[in-house]
Every structure is written in structure tokens, then in C-alpha cells.
Write a structure and sequence with these properties.
Helix content: 25-40%
Shape: elongated
Low-confidence stretches: 250-256, 356-360
Distance between the termini: 51 Å
Number of helices: 9
Mean pLDDT: 82
CATH topology of the largest domain: Immunoglobulin-like
Strand content: 25-35%
Strand order of the largest sheet: 2-9-8-4-6
Length: about 350
């Protein structure tokens, strides 16, 4: 019954929630904290000042609306000409904040001060079915009132879709014909791809109620690796008696080729292994034999087609990533296979495929 109620609210409210969220984001980008306070006064004045004969609160409403209208007119035009570039890291890790820079090159003959630098990340709007599944899962532990209010869950879903939280940066002064770099701090909220769409430069209008905005398209993407946790070393059975690797692989990873014996030449033997001194001494072709190398090989399997809760799958991905990143014995190999349209295999261990930190 609870799941049916949550699903009904989500299915009915999804189209309205999408529009409300879009307008809310636009207002949050436009209004300053003082502007929000004045807007709240205007709403309060409209509610409590309906009866103009018994109350003078309606005058607060008129004053607030007038100030907001003047601020809107003052913030309509912001004609800065600039070039914006980012310097992103190669990869990031979910839940781990990182810093990057945004460089603004002023192409005008006048300076600007101060400026606010805001990022806009792209995200696909969830379908009604996706929102239904998300809201049902989130509402299973909530009371009746919380299940009937669906918009907070829409905000949470959109926050996960966007995938990161980036507070605005600030440039105190942007001189004419010069470049200034602002440092921004990004906190990825999930693994996957972050799609950076544009950078918005904003400045506050004289009344301090609204911001004049100028948007610069700067599409880029950043891969966010799964969240990892400290894990205790695993003691797995095995020694150097499994999985023959061969002399070529042993030499590739740094093992010395151990000489075993000499034998007579057989058709098909490579000439590179002929023992030339023995051939000169005996007159017979003699081949050098080497000991083959053996390695321990471990496998880590992750089912990437989950049929249950997505939270459990994300926890499994993080656990698998933590096991891959943890240090292991130099005597073991770990095969990583990725299957999509075709299969890709990578071998890790003994100097191959060593994990690196996100910033490297």
C-alpha cells in the first residue's frame, strides 16, 4: 500500500516537479540572499495585506515589488566579452573533493569587479518511470506526510543526476585585456561522467538584489571513479605453481631467465637459443633450455546486470574497486575483463597495470 501511494504521487507529480525545479534553479541563480529576503517580504505582504482598509502591510508589498522591478531592469544587460577555459584533472573519485581552475580572459577595454564564477553541469531529466522507482525506494522508511510530498525526492534525484556540488568562485578584479584564474572546489556525488556545460559570470547590480548573468558555453567531461574504502589485505591461497606465464612475460615484468640445461636441436626451435660455443666445440646444434615461470592468478567477478536495488549495486562496485586498488603480493596477477560490444582484458600485478591516484 505504501509503495502504491508513493508511486501514484510520483507518477502524477513528475511533470510539475520538472517545471518547478527548472524555475527554482533559475531563481537561485538570479537572486542574491537580499533579493530572496525581499521576495519573501513581497509574498508576506500579498498574503497579509489583502484587506487594504484594515492594514497597511500592502505598502510593504508595493515597495518590495518596486525594488525587485528596478533590480531586474538593472540586471538585464551584462555585455562582458571574455574567453573562459578550465583545467580539470584526468579523473576524480566519488566523494573525494578536488580543486580545479577556471581562467577568464577579459577581451574588453574596461575592467570588471567583482565577478562571481558559477558552473553549470548537464544532466538528463529523469523519466516518470525512473522517478517512480526512485521515490518508492526512498519513501519505504518515511511517514505518510513525507510520502505525499514528492518534490524533495525529485530534487535529490536531480542532484544525483547532475553528479557534483560546485560552490561559486569569485574574482575580485578582472583588469582590461588581462586573464585571471579562479579556483573552484568540486565534490563528486556519484561515479560516472560529469558533463560540464557552461561557465556563468555574474555581477551584482547596484541594489544588491539580483545578479547580471553572462553565460559562456564550455562543454567538457570528467570521468569519476567509484568510491573506495580502506580494506584489510586478503590472504588468498596459492603460490608460484599456477598459470604458466612463459619466459617472454617473465622478462617483460622483470624476472630473470633461469638457465636449466642444454639439449639437441629439434626442428622448429628458434635460432636465438642456439648455444654457439657448444656448437663450435662439438659440431652439433645445441639449444639452451630455460625454466618456465609460473604465477598466481586471481579473479574478481562483478555482476553488472543487477536485478535488485541500485544502492546495493553501487556498494558492490565500490567494494570491487577497493579490492582492485588495495596493494597485493608481487607474486600474483589479477585479470580485469570488461565486456560490452566486445571483450577487453587487462592484467594487473607484477609491474603491470599498477593503480594510480586520481590526480596523477
Amino acid at each position: 500500500m505504501r509503495d502504491l501511494m508513493s508511486a501514484s504521487v510520483a507518477r502524477i507529480g513528475a511533470p510539475a516537479f520538472s517545471r518547478i525545479y527548472r524555475y527554482d534553479r533559475a531563481l537561485r541563480r538570479k537572486l542574491t540572499p537580499a533579493g530572496w529576503l525581499l521576495a519573501a517580504l513581497a509574498v508576506s505582504g500579498a498574503i497579509f495585506g489583502l484587506n487594504t482598509r484594515e492594514s497597511l502591510i500592502y505598502q510593504v508589498f508595493g515597495l518590495a515589488i518596486g525594488l525587485l522591478a528596478m533590480a531586474l531592469l538593472a540586471s538585464l544587460r551584462f555585455g562582458i566579452r571574455a574567453k573562459v577555459t578550465r583545467a580539470l584533472p584526468q579523473v576524480a573519485t566519488a566523494g573525494e573533493p578536488f580543486e580545479y581552475t577556471v581562467t577568464v580572459a577579459n577581451l574588453d577595454d574596461r575592467s570588471y569587479e567583482p565577478l562571481i564564477v558559477e558552473e553549470t553541469l548537464g544532466a538528463r531529466r529523469p523519466t516518470a518511470q525512473e522517478f517512480v522507482a526512485f521515490k518508492v525506494r526512498e519513501d519505504r522508511t518515511r511517514n505518510l506526510f513525507d510520502r505525499l510530498v514528492g518534490y524533495p525526492r525529485w530534487v535529490n534525484l536531480m542532484r544525483l543526476r547532475i553528479g557534483a556540488h560546485i560552490p561559486p568562485g569569485r574574482i575580485e578584479e578582472l583588469p582590461a585585456k588581462e586573464s585571471v584564474t579562479a579556483r573552484l572546489r568540486c565534490t563528486p556525488l556519484r561515479r560516472g561522467e560529469l558533463r560540464f556545460e557552461s561557465v556563468t559570470l555574474a555581477r551584482t547590480e547596484p541594489l544588491g538584489l539580483m545578479k547580471a548573468l553572462r553565460r559562456f558555453k564550455a562543454p567538457e567531461s570528467l570521468v569519476v571513479m567509484p568510491r573506495t574504502y580502506p580494506v584489510a589485505p586478503l590472504t588468498l591461497p596459492g603460490n608460484r605453481r599456477l598459470q604458466p606465464g612463459g619466459i617472454s612475460f617473465a622478462g617483460h615484468v622483470g624476472d630473470a631467465e633461469e638457465f636449466v640445461s642444454l639439449r639437441d636441436y629439434r626442428p622448429g626451435d628458434t635460432p636465438r637459443r642456439i648455444h654457439w660455443k657448444a656448437w663450435a666445440r662439438t659440431g652439433r646444434l645445441v639449444i639452451k633450455e630455460y625454466q618456465d615461470e609460473f604465477f598466481v592468478r586471481h579473479a574478481l567477478l562483478l555482476d553488472t546486470f543487477p536485478s535488485g536495488d541500485s544502492l546495493a549495486f553501487e556498494a558492490a562496485v565500490s567494494l570491487a574497486a577497493s579490492l582492485v586498488m588495495m596493494p597485493r603480493s608481487n607474486e600474483s596477477l589479477l585479470d580485469l575483463m570488461f565486456v560490452e560490444n566486445r571483450m577487453y582484458t587487462f592484467t594487473q600485478g607484477r609491474g603491470l597495470g599498477a593503480p594510480t591516484s586520481p590526480g596523477s
